[in-house]
Amino acid sequence: MNLACVILAAGLGKRMRSSLPKVLHSICGIPMIQSVLNTVTTLRPQRIIVVAGKHMDRIQESVEAGDVLFAHQAEPRGTGHALRCAAPALKGFRGDVLVVNGDTPLIRTRTLREFLRLHQKNRNILSVLSFIPRNPAGYGRIVRSSDGEIVSVVEQKDADIRQKKITEANSGVYAISHAALSLVEKIPLNRARGEYYLTDIVAGAVRERLRSAAYCIGTEEEFMGVNTRAELHRAAQLMRKGIVAGWTAKGVDFIDSGSAFIDAGVSLSRDVTIYPHVCIEGRTRIGSGSTVFPNVRIRDARIGRDVTIKDSSVIEDSVVEDGASVGPFAHIRPGSRIGRLAKIGNFVELKKASVGDSSKASHLSYLGDTDIGKGVNIGAGTITCNYDGSKKHRTVIRDGVFIGSDSQLVAPVIIGEKAYIGAGSTITKDVPAGALALSRSPQKIINGWVGTKGRRTEKKR
Ligand code: UD1
Ligand code: CA
Fold first, then answer.
1. Tally of domains in the chain
2. Each residue of 178-233: pLDDT tens digit?
3. Where in the sequence is the domain holding 262, given as residue range(s)?
């Protein structure tokens, strides 16, 4: 059966009180609309159409979607009007149109499949997906006749006292045969609200005696519509719980599953251990046997196997190879690479820095725009002076170099293989391989100075 999916995403989302379009608010690192798109994509529809409004450009820029068509709804005149705006993009389509709200990010493919199966098996012209929430306030209600047939959907705002007591709610998911799309054109204006309600398509279909049904399937959680920040947070909590449970089943150990924040795009491996209060974001991947200690944030990074990320470190857009150790309190900024078995210790900042295998920078360093070879030892307090006030320059440190503590390397500069830099040096010129470079002033010794005239003068001032 041919399938087209229409995602309604042109509402203003006023209840969010945000300058960001509602459907672009993220849940576990993915904009709501992207979650819905990912879900409907797995149904392999012939067409996917997103109806967007005022913020169409921003939505188009933000979503990753191969062949998605966009339809424009210039004014948010209701969900019925929104689907009408998709008509040009549906032209010539023969099959069923699955309509989904863009603000229900937790919908599962499995439920949509089951819904479409029921719709098709019963040869319906129109089907509505319903569910029973604990508190149906805010949702449209499914009105059924005494023999249980669907009659209409009534919005909370328009419901009378009796209808408000109905517990079966409209999920905002519909299947409409292309043959019934003309019903969308016939949806009347809800005068009280000044909107065309897509929900009114049900009464229209019933009036024309077209085969219609509502299927109460799926869980309350997955149909949670996000209209406010509080609902956004609730949806995020639900998704987060599901993600953590999913990785736990695949062999990841969470010391405190309640305080692990793992984005939907993250990939973890077996025997990864995650301590409390850890955020793993974006498209981060972590290899097996690695441990992430408390208060760490990792974004868009590739972490190898058996890596240790110690407490309170930040790693962004970088690579950490197998067996390396980072932190505590390390800041690995974008474009960095830490080689196998390398060690980056406390209060070390890396930026566009590549650290070779088995090299160490154990304490208090800034290493920016730097290529560090293998087996290098970077002493405590080493700083690469990469910025001359207008341009950035690179520092190259070749294999086996030893940099003494509290040294500054003024870029551009190259330290040749196995060279030594004496502690406290300011290096401004290239150092040949195997050489020792020292730039500190020679030490003076004044014997018996304590108790001399000179010292007394000092003290008086
Ligand atoms: C809607 C349903 C309600 C259902 C609930 C499920 C209607 C009238 N009501 O209510 O029965 O229980 O969803 O979550 O349909 N949109 C547009 N253009 C518009 C207005 C809205 O594209 O002019 C989009 C929004 O971006 C949103 C979706 O349609 O993604 C739903 O709109 P919203 O205003 O959130 O409807 P609800 O009041 O939640
Ligand atoms: Ca909604």
1. 2
2. 989 999 999 999 988 899 999 999 999 999 999 999 999 988 999 999 999 999 99
3. 246-437
The pair of three-digit structure tokens given for residue 424, joined into one six-digit string: 């406290």
Does residue 78 have its Cβ closer than 6 Å to ligand 1? yes
Looking from the CA of residue 77, the nearest atom of ligand 1 is 23
Contact present, 396 and 381 (Cβ < 8 Å):
no
Among this protein's residues, is 363 annotated catalytic?
Answer: yes
Closest to 179 (Cα-Cα) out of 89, 100, 96, 90: 96
| Nearest listed ligand to the Cα of residue 171 | 1
DSSP string, 118-161: HHHHTT-SEEEEEE--S--TTS-EEEE-TTS-EEEEE-GGG--H
Specify the DSSP class assigned to residue 212.
E
Residues 169 and 276 both lie in one domain? no
Instruction: Say if ligand 1 is within 6 A of residue 143 CB.
Output: no
Whether this prediction's pTM lies above 0.85 is answered by yes
Q: Phi/psi of residue 27, each to 5°?
A: -125, 120
Atom of ligand 1 nearest to the CA of 198: 15
CA distance 370 to 384: 8
Q: For 436-447, write each residue's pLDDT tens digit.
A: 999 988 999 999
| CA 171 / ligand 1 centre spacing (Å) | 10
Question: Is residue 229 one of the residues assigned to a domain?
Answer: no
**Does 322 score more than 60 pLDDT?**
yes
Pocket flag, ligand 1, residue 77 (CB < 6 Å): yes
Ligand 1 atom nearest the C-alpha of 195 is 23
- Selecting among 25, 55, 331, 363, the annotated active-site residue is 363
417 and 374 within one domain:
yes
